[in-house]
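Technical appendix A lists one of the benchmark inputs used to test multi-chain prediction within the project. The record comprises two sequence entries:
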Amino acid sequence: MTSHAAYTGNDPHQLLTSIREHARRVRMTQRATWFPLLVFAALTFAAIPAYRLTGLHPGSCAALPAGGRICTVESTAAFVYWPIALVLAYAAIAAFYIRRSRTRGVDTPVRPYVIAGIILAAAVTSAALWVFHHPLARYDLPGLPGQPGLAGLSGRLATSACGIGLALLVLAWAERNGPLLALAIGYLAAVLLPINFGWVVSLPGWFFVPRLVIDGSVLLFGGIGFLLAQRPWQRAA
Amino acid sequence: MTTHPAIELDDIVHQRVRLGILAIAHEARRVEFSYLRDSLELSAGNLSQHLGVLENAGLITIEKGYAGKRARTWVSLTKAGRAALAAEITRLKLLISLVEHP
């Protein structure tokens, strides 16, 4: 086997080049970005039947400043399916990375990601509960009444999708992974901005489908992209 | 008068194999013996000698254990090891800049 990092002397240029090359190869060995992305894509698509089966529950109502009233309605899935699914997903991701580090011989930087993910899952579930009982928070940001594009931002911040996106930022930092950083920012943009490509489901009880399909597709295509780029089957061979 | 950076080079660290071990251990946080052996293209005996030098200098710690029935040896960088690697990189960059911009 010929190593690209091999060098013959103590020339400073060669030594620095070899240090960088060793570091790059370790990072390539450590990365398994495709796995969490595909896990979360699967969870997001699986949330569609979970939302449908668990049903909607009315929350609180409040008077709007411009007149009228606004009430919150939320699926039980937000408070039951997502917390359980996220904890199980992070446990699976941690187990996968640990097993991988044992077979490949290098530790993987998964711990900060898993810890951040679980903390964020708890935080967004708490925030979702708060928003559920404070209808005006979902309607608008405090102090920014009716600004286009911002309406409902606080409600979207308090979602499990936002928690997944923020945890992906932590993974990008831990893996020093520029492409993942770009994907995490794109995913957060898709989650936080009211993007639906004009797709509205008029069937009662299925209004959440476009949101979940768009979020899940970003994760799915990102995961497939990283899978093809990282080609784990080649190193495993 | 400033000291020439070549004079300050640490003989323990300024050696291609040992520098490679430190670089890999720094990036991996904890690395297995076989990964080092394969990456650096060394025999097990040769790698053990270099690891011994680094361990005696307090730059790495060596941890032995089992993964299932297989014996494993894990190498981690110490705080002194991280500092030594950073200092070596700084000196190498200084040497290069002195050569390129005398």
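The domain at 16-97 of chain B is CATH 1.10.10.10 (Arc Repressor Mutant, subunit A). The beta strands of chain B are 30-32, 60-67, 70-77. Comparable benchmark entries are summarised in Table A2.
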